[in-house]
Inverse folding.
């Protein structure tokens, strides 16, 4: 579900599903079912560790010193408005952090939680 494409047209993929969307332009970026943990820290506060994300583009890979050690990551941005949403974990140097590889850290403050609830009629 991840997209490293340079396409600038968001794709609607989660009709009637609970999602997280970009807080800047409302482009859907993740399915709430992909949430692994809410107990993470981003650059600007709390973050969510996610199995996947969509409608995002990966920036340049870099080694970054994070709270849990050095990781090879790439910032991810919304393809709808180019807002930075978090990062993608490519590689963790510490064995205990390997579970993050291939996952996304999306910053809570940069997301809108959309539940898609329906009332019975």
């Amino acid at each position: 579900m991840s997209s490293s494409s340079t396409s600038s047209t968001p794709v609607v993929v989660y009709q009637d599903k609970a999602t997280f969307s970009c807080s800047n332009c409302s482009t859907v970026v993740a399915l709430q079912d992909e949430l692994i943990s809410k107990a993470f820290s981003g650059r600007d506060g709390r973050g969510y560790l996610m199995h996947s994300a969509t409608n995002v583009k990966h920036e340049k890979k870099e080694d970054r010193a994070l709270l849990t050690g050095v990781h090879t990551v790439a910032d991810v941005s919304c393809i709808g408005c180019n807002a930075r949403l978090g990062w993608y974990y490519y590689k963790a140097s510490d064995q205990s952090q390997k579970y993050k590889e291939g996952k996304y850290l999306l910053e809570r403050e940069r997301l809108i939680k959309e539940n898609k609830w329906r009332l019975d009629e």
